[in-house]
Amino acid sequence: MDKIKKHWEKILLGIVLTLLAGGALFVVLEVPSIQAKLVEEVGFDRKNAFEPEDLSGLKALLARAEDPKSLRLAGPDHNTFNPVGWFEANGNLVKDKFYGKKGPNAVVIKSTTPLYLRIAYDDRKEVNPQDPRYSFYVTREAADKKTERRKVTRVSRLRDKNDIFILREVKGSPTNPESFVLTLLNSNQNIEVLSSQEFTEIRGYKADLEYEAGNRKYSGVMKGDKVTIDKRSYEIVFISEDEVVLSDEKTSTHTNVSKNAL
Question: 3-state class of 56 per DSSP?
Fold first, then answer.
């Protein structure tokens, strides 16, 4: 009895812990039965748990709203303000894909190439000190006549005049010159030609043109050349690095075609 009095607190604690352990075990054992009752009474089932509604259609609609298509009132696929032309072929009406894209305004510049004046001293020929004469190679790529565009040779004494230039001055030794001063007759321009280097200067351009509506290409055309567009003849009256001017031979109407025109 004395032992019980001394250890009654430990005995009481042991009883309480035993009851708690039994209660916990009871709860664990009762969980399955409680779940079964809930399924039976409420209809809850993990396999049939709530799933969110399929929102893929709404998401696709939202994506379209965030990136709307612009309203097009012009262009090749819209004819409200761009009527389509038609032509008859073998008894059938055929859509004209080049409607509104014909005539000289529809010509496209594919490329331009500079044309040079080239003058070079021929130092291979020995100069006679008693009668010094100097030989030059001349190429005029932009000349109006085709016969004048080939490479030619001109031999001149000091102050001599030929059909291309006047030899104004010889710099350095007469028999071993360093350079020459020439006056070009067609422009009255003075230029200096080194004895060791060819003189070059851009004097014009040639162009490659394309007319898609007529399935025509015009290669290497130059100022003064003529091209036919839709059975009409046009003369090229001007060419620069980025522009060509066509002149209608009947009406003299000028059409400017730009290289980077859209």
Answer: helix
Domain of residue 226, CATH code: 2.30.30
Decide: helix, strand or coil at residue 155: strand
Q: Identify which of 202, 199, 201, 200 has the alpha carbon closest to the alpha carbon of residue 114.
A: 202
What the block records as the tokens of 234 is 């046009």
Listed residues 184, 203, 222: the one ending a domain: 203
Average of per-residue pLDDT across 25-47: 64
Question: Which tokens hold the place of 63?
Answer: 């994506």
Q: Shortest CA distance to 180 belongs to which of 129, 136, 140?
A: 136
> CA–CA separation, 159 vs 156, rounded Å?
8
Q: What are phi and psi of 204, to 5 degrees?
A: 165, -170
Considering only the C-alpha atoms of the chain, give the largest distance between any 2 of them, rounded to a whole number of Å.
160
- As a whole number, mean pLDDT of residues 42-47 equals 56
Q: Which residues of 199-216 are buried (b: 16+ CB within 10 A; e: fewer)?
A: beeebbbbbebebebbee
What is the chain's percent helix, strand, coil content, to nearest 5?
25, 40, 35
Structure tokens, 151: 């490479």
Tokens of 122: 């021929």
- Range(s) of the domain holding residue 193: 113-203
- 128: DSSP letter: P
Question: Which whole number is the average pLDDT over 74-84?
Answer: 59
State whether 199 and 211 are in the same domain. Answer: no
Q: Which tokens is 14 given?
A: 């042991």
Instruction: Give the closest residue to 182 by CA, choosing from 197, 194, 196.
Output: 194
Interval 80-124: pLDDT, tens:
555 666 656 677 766 656 555 678 888 999 999 999 999 999 998
Count up the domains in the chain and report the number. 3
State which H helix or E strand residue 29 sits in.
helix 8-42
